[in-house]
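User: I'm writing a short report section on ligand binding and want a predicted complex to refer to. Could you take this sequence and zinc ion and write out the structure as tokens? A short remark afterwards would be nice.
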Amino acid sequence: MIDLYQKTRHCRGCSHPSSGLKEMIHMNPMPPAGPLNSSQEIALKIAKIPLTLLQCQNCGLVQVQEILNPHFQIDQTPLPTSQFKGLVSHYTEFANLLSERYELNKNVHLIEIGSNDGLFLSSLPDSWNKLGIDFESPGSLPTNEKTQWIRDPLTKALIDKFHIDGWAHVVCLTNALRNTEEARLFFNTASLLLIEGGEFWIEEPSLDLLLVDEQWDLLNHSQANFWTLASLQSCLDPIGLEYVESFIPSYNTNVQRHVFRKGVPVLCENSFEGISPHLLRIKAAYEKRFDSLPVQKTLEARRMGKKIAAISASRRTQVYLNQIQILPIEYIIDEIPQRQNHWIPGRGIPVVPPDFLKKYPVDFLMVSHASELEGYKEHFPDFKGEWIARFGS
Ligand SMILES: [Zn+2]
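Assistant: Sure. The structure tokens for the complex follow:
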């Protein structure tokens, strides 16, 4: 029998042995969030595994201890980025930002690592020389004299083979570090692509942002690494990539874009002894989750005989409902057809289409974060009950 998961043996950022990894938070065993189940019976019987977040005492990277065996992971094949409407606006905005920043240099050489179906590169100016490197590229990529593609993993041997050592003025890495192992070695290889003074862009979901409102339900098994600016710096400083500045994209506020510049290696001065105080806040919020206002309000509503449904069968909803098993939820509304007529793993709560609400009305609707409320209120204008946000105010 194959093990469901393996425990992290060394830091996934700086490769230090696991003795330097300190426990930040340990959550109750739950099914890996992501895939929904096709029957309630399966959903209630599914295997549960613990979720422990560790912080490296050397580089500060927060990482999951229980790494799912690839055999049990889903979403292995990346979908073409251009299929997602939100991502088209996101990458157009990113391309505009770069065009303005480097407009004086008409002959920019830019490399994107993890170029997917080429959506981002094709949004950049036609006059630039662009190279996409992606070993699991999902779709057909348009090639022309200014745009080239390499479908292999980035290694030193690949850089030598294609003579791209010091070729690029700009290297971009978007959403590519969630599950990277030995990140510092990877950064070291990537930095070889840059000229001296060239800029390295990293766009990644940010633990710094997740910490706002202590949104502990965003922690799950599908992402192994949770980067902060400080942990990125401690992996990049020693290889000579110096921090310049950060941006928050307008279309995806859970990610941050950081710019680093290739220069001289320095010793990182960040210290990560113990667990960072801001990380302890998330642990405290998790441990006091049963006392939180949304949970108390929901339990009180149930005592009064009221009915409660939730919106979105997302990973975070699955995490939240598995960690608070006593929360009485009738059903989950989700507009994604592939999710409907499925069940929430570990809880066996049915996932239904939005029109279900008319047939089986409830008194309360629960959403993940207060910032989503306005959008959902517009989406469900006929709902006259009360809204509950799990996080934010
Ligand atoms: Zn480390």
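A remark for your report: The first strand starts at residue 5 and ends at 7. The longest helix spans residues 85-101.
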